[in-house]
Specification:
It contains 8 helices and 11 strands. The protein is an alpha/beta fold. A 5-stranded parallel beta sheet has the order 2-1-3-4-5, with helices on both faces. It has a 4-stranded antiparallel beta sheet with strand order 6-7-8-9, covered by helices on one side. Helix 6 (about 150-165) packs across helix 8. The two termini are about 20 Å apart. Keywords: DNA-binding, Phosphoprotein, Transcription, Transcription regulation, Two-component regulatory system.
Amino acid sequence: MRVLVVEDEQLLADAVATGLRREAMAVDVVYDGAAALERIGVNDYDVVVLDRDLPLVHGDDVCRKIVELGMPTRVLMLTASGDVSDRVEGLEIGADDYLPKPFAFSELIARVRALGRRTSVPLPPVLERAGIKLDPNRREVFREGREVQLAPKEFAVLEVLMRSEGAVVSAEQLLEKAWDENTDPFTNVVRVTVMTLRRKLGEPPVIVTVPGSGYRI
């Protein structure tokens, strides 16, 4: 899952990003509304965690722009105000969910994951394919009943492949969904991660390489 965190309190923004990355999400971070508009114009995000009170461009205007562009991106709006009228106003602008500060990080994770499931064709909370069961909320993977321990990027790649439901996913798409914008696109990180993932999942191999196209399960 690709997430953009937009928060002008840099310590909070970086802490949220670090926590989301530990949950195997690819996370970009910006600290003002103008930078947020720039990023959403370049990258495809599943979820934007958006502070409402932003410098340069207000969070409301960023949210309106996402709605105006007809993007499938879901918006989780954050605010220091817990007033009901503010929450209602945020939802009316086009936010998909609303979370007042301070918040429990476990709740933020749950809400981001719930919104991420709504960016495409609805999928069950636990993904199953080719004898593999993947639970994004519990960060658990089983193959034929055997638990498989995966590093965050390996988990992220497997989740993208599972969500594609048998469709071929290119290396570029995996790079976009499982890594953030600081990753060098010319590295072989995708190929190496897929190789390690295949080994951990065991025999017979379930990740198929489609020459010139990408990978599928």
